[in-house]
Design brief:
By secondary structure, the chain is α/β, with parallel strands linked by helices. It has twelve helices and 14 strands.
Length: 327
């Protein structure tokens, strides 16, 4: 085992999969000699050359279009969207073409591509560099939506995504790129897409989170434990398809559910988890399902005090779980 950062784990996964399969290539803005704005692809251009680490124009539609075409002919593209905020020009290609290709051809054509995108706030990026986009894609049959929360999962899930024959949206919590560290096995391994992971056992309240919010949820659980409140933390990891069984198992254990995400509250992904619990776990509940999310304003503010007001934090999660545990 070796301790590395989240972004190091992503780079290692890309490197290993490119070395394993010559059909894997990377395309995106500044991914080549610069190594990406977050340095996720640094060194790969020198190792694999410009035909496999391709700098694209500033046109997300073309990045995804090239990826779909290449995937249809047997390649395994990894398309990087520099910031998730810029994915919208490619929305039609992703939703109407990549997601539906296998279905519309009765399985004759598949689209084995990965779309990587740094998402979320907390870095002072303002309106166009802080958005959470998972809610747009986690309701589209034909797509898989993955959000890693640790270096171990980031590497293992990305390797699984590259090997998958379906299009995978791989969202990376950019605030955690160098903040989140963890042990990762040396050598090849994968983490299956689909299953959630109970990262901390508890009996008083279940906290469901993913990405950066899972990192904060673990910190909140540690704080609550000093007060005698034992919170169970569930890392969803895969948003579509979602692991209903683990969610319901945790609610049955604790009787209380706190769902955390940093996207806006209204229409956010947490509403889907709340619906699952309400439909299939209602009789196990001892309190109303609680959602903790970003406020319903158009975007994360640039001002740091306002950004802090918008963002979900360790303390906000602890406060919400504490109130829920009192029921």
């Amino acid at each position: 085992m070796t301790e590395i950062t989240l972004v190091d784990a992503i780079r290692d996964a890309l490197d290993e999969e490119m070395g394993r399969n010559d059909n894997v290539f990377i395309v995106g803005e500044d991914v080549g000699q610069r190594g990406g704005v977050f340095r996720a692809t640094v060194g790969l251009f020198d190792k694999y050359g410009g035909e496999r680490v391709i700098d694209s124009p500033l046109a997300e539609l073309s990045i995804i279009g090239v990826g779909i075409g290449a995937a249809l002919y047997g390649m395994r593209p990894v398309c990087e969207i520099q910031f998730a905020d810029f994915i919208y020009p490619a929305f039609n290609q992703i939703v109407s073409e990549a997601a539906r290709m296998c279905y519309r051809t009765n399985g004759q054509w598949t689209v084995p591509m990965v779309i990587r995108a740094p998402y979320g706030g907390g870095i002072g990026g303002g309106l166009y560099h802080s958005q959470s986009v998972e809610g747009f894609f986690a309701r589209i049959p034909g797509l898989k939506v993955v959000v890693p929360s640790s270096p171990y999962d980031a590497k293992g899930l990305l390797k699984s995504a590259i090997r998958d024959d379906n299009p995978v949206i791989f969202l990376e919590p950019k605030k955690g790129y160098r903040l989140i560290r963890g042990e990762v096995p040396v050598g090849d391994y994968t983490v299956p897409i689909g299953p959630a992971n109970i990262t901390r056992s508890g009996r008083d309240v279940s906290i469901f989170a993913y990405g950066m919010m899972h990192f904060y949820a673990l910190q909140a659980a540690e704080k609550l434990a000093t007060e005698g409140i034992l919170a169970e933390v569930v890392d969803l990891r895969t948003l579509y398809p979602v692991d209903k069984a683990t969610i319901l198992q945790s609610v049955k254990q604790t009787g209380k559910a706190l769902i955390v995400h940093e996207d806006n509250l209204t229409g956010g992904y947490g509403g889907e988890i709340a619906a699952i619990i309400a439909e299939d776990g209602f009789t196990d509940l001892d309190a109303p399902v609680r959602r903790l999310a970003g406020p319903d304003v158009p975007a994360v503010p640039f001002s740091h005090p306002m950004q802090d007001w918008f963002m979900v934090s360790t303390e906000k999660i602890a406060n919400a779980a504490r109130e829920l545990a009192r029921y």
